[in-house]
Design a protein that fits this description.
With 267 residues, the chain is α/β, with parallel strands linked by helices. Strand 1, helix 1 and strand 2 form a beta-alpha-beta unit. Helix 1 runs parallel beside helix 2 and helix 1 packs across helix 7. Helix content is 40%, strand content 16%. The protein has a 7-stranded parallel beta sheet with strand order 3-2-1-4-5-6-7, sandwiched between helices. It has a single domain, classed as NAD(P)-binding Rossmann-like Domain (Rossmann fold), CATH 3.40.50.720.
């Protein structure tokens, strides 16, 4: 791998939860942050504070309030990032890309009233945002030369990829697909010395979790089941991703890495 003067992290879902924590942690280790988020106007003051905290670590922060699942908006973000790289002195590269998009439909498959059941539109949207968008982002960063040898790509999955929960069916299917996409990308990018891994966090009290019907029970079960005696925290994931992002560590690829205190292996 050649010398990189300006290392960047591209975080999809950077305004809360795992994405926010990872952006802040990586900034402490010298990564400039390109954050993509999709928030209402009322949430933007919080985003401004995240940007301020990143800047306080002596690095750059480029944030975009865009729909990461939209093809044109994805292209616009990456074109602007590439232009920024081209204008900078020295060599810039996205050394870490994180896919942490949590936007899907939480409806059961089977209901007494068909109007309450999930539809094709719901299923397709969930799959596209939470799984397929990873492939499209990776294709576009590769085509623009934004990542290269020594880069790491991470995607956030969950135990829902192999377990069930009421109303979680579409998201569970998307997580299973996301894990499959990670394996395929790892296979195809291995020769380029780019690692791709899925991070399976334990139950974590994030805004995304609180949108799931019955999340209170999930939290209760998670605390009881976890041998560490607590839920996973966003900082646990941020610390793991930072530790795994050594550019000389790309031989570890194609995995589903548990960051859950042993929750998933506990009965």
């Amino acid at each position: 791998m050649g010398k990189v003067d300006n290392k960047w992290a591209l975080i999809l879902g950077a305004s809360s939860g795992f994405g926010e924590a990872t952006a802040l942690e990586l900034s402490k280790h010298g990564y400039n942050i390109c954050g993509v988020h999709f928030d209402r106007k009322s949430a933007l003051p919080k985003v401004d504070k995240i940007i301020e905290r990143i800047g306080a670590n002596g690095v750059e922060a480029l944030f975009f309030n865009r729909n990461a699942a939209d093809e044109e908006q994805r292209a616009a973000v990456l074109d602007e990032l590439k232009a920024h790289f081209d204008e900078a002195s020295g060599t810039s590269q996205v050394m870490v890309m994180m896919h942490s998009l949590a936007f899907g439909t939480l409806r059961p498959f089977i209901t007494d009233d068909p109007k309450d059941a999930i539809t094709k539109k719901h299923m397709d949207m969930t799959q596209d945002v939470m799984a397929n968008s990873l492939v499209y982002w990776v294709q576009d960063v590769i085509q623009r030369g934004l990542v290269g040898a020594g880069s790491h790509i991470f995607a956030m999955t969950s135990s829902g990829g192999h377990e069930v929960w009421a109303t979680y069916g579409a998201v569970s299917a998307a997580k299973a697909a996301l894990e499959s996409h990670c394996r395929q990308l790892a296979h195809e990018l291995s020769s380029r010395n780019i690692a791709v891994n899925a991070i399976r966090a334990g139950v974590t009290d994030t805004p995304a979790l609180r949108k799931i019907p019955g999340h209170e029970e999930m939290i209760k079960i998670g605390k009881k089941k976890n041998p560490g005696g607590r839920l996973t925290r966003p900082q646990d994931v941020a610390t793991a991703i930072t530790s795994l992002s050594d550019p000389n560590n790309t031989w570890m690829t194609g995995n589903i890495i548990g960051v859950d205190g042993g929750e998933d292996i506990s009965g």
